[in-house]
Design a protein that fits this description.
Order of helices and strands: HHEHEHHEEHEHHEEH
Number of helices: 9
Strand content: 5-15%
Number of strands: 7
């Protein structure tokens, strides 16, 4: 795993990969695959969030829990699916809020790479999952890697937006001392980073405060006020590609 780390993240993440816990995670994943278990996303996509969003370009962090566990859905970015794959319900609700918040027309696909290439780190807490078993790789060691990534972003002086949907993402942020100390809940002067907290966009909780939370416009207002530009949240129409297969 350490060999495939993007250069911009290597100093932060390589010590975790080379630790006893990191080596144990790698061995456990190899054993699961050798036992015939289907793991998503497929090899080559598991560090995709870091590949598309170098550390020094991060402007927004969106935290997810773990990858989609259906065939062809997960491709290394939280909440995202490859073009041509039907958008899952949580992503459909994200697009609904985006339309209400910013007037952005509903995208024709669910591939969020356009966001990632602009500095939106789309990071799950665990970077793999077993087919059909949501949360199955939680607690196996990925958390140390993703904690280190979030802490590295929070420790940088560049003002950054952390979008925390649901108690799981908010709990992860509470473990990062730099984030707890530096961040606020609005864009008031004196807060180095912006935390945007709301319920999760899943159908079970979206109506409890996710809808109407305006995360996209609030993020852009904070970034613009701090000289970091804005994110183009509209998704361009890509050339349609087949869904990922393992």
């Amino acid at each position: 795993m350490a060999d495939s780390l993007p250069d911009s993240w290597r100093a932060v993440l390589e010590p975790v990969c080379m630790s006893r816990a990191g080596r144990r995670l790698g061995g456990w994943l190899r054993a699961e695959e050798a036992a015939g278990k289907q793991i998503y996303p497929p090899r080559g996509c598991r560090l995709r969030a870091f590949e598309l969003t170098p550390l020094d370009s991060v402007r927004v962090v969106i935290l997810g829990q773990d990858p989609y566990h259906g065939e062809g859905q997960a491709h290394g970015l939280c909440f995202s699916v490859p073009a041509g794959v039907k958008e899952p319900p949580s992503l459909a609700n994200i697009f609904r809020e985006l339309a209400d918040d910013c007037g952005v027309a509903r995208p024709a696909h669910g591939n969020l790479e356009h966001w990632a290439r602009q500095g939106v780190l789309l990071l799950n807490n665990a970077l793999t999952v077993e087919s059909g078993r949501a949360g199955s790789h939680a607690g196996q060691g990925w958390e140390a890697l993703t904690d280190a990534a979030v802490a590295a972003v929070a420790a940088r002086p560049a003002p950054t937006v952390f979008i925390l949907w649901g108690s799981h993402a908010q709990g992860k942020a509470s473990r990062i001392p730099e984030l707890r100390e530096a961040a606020g809940d609005n864009s008031r002067d004196g807060a180095r980073h912006l935390l945007i907290r709301s319920p999760h966009p899943s159908p079970l909780s979206a109506h409890r405060g996710f809808f109407g939370s305006r995360p996209f416009s609030r993020a852009n207002a904070f970034l613009a006020a701090n000289g970091r530009g804005t994110i183009d949240w509209a998704l361009p129409q890509p050339a349609l590609a087949p869904a990922l297969r393992s």
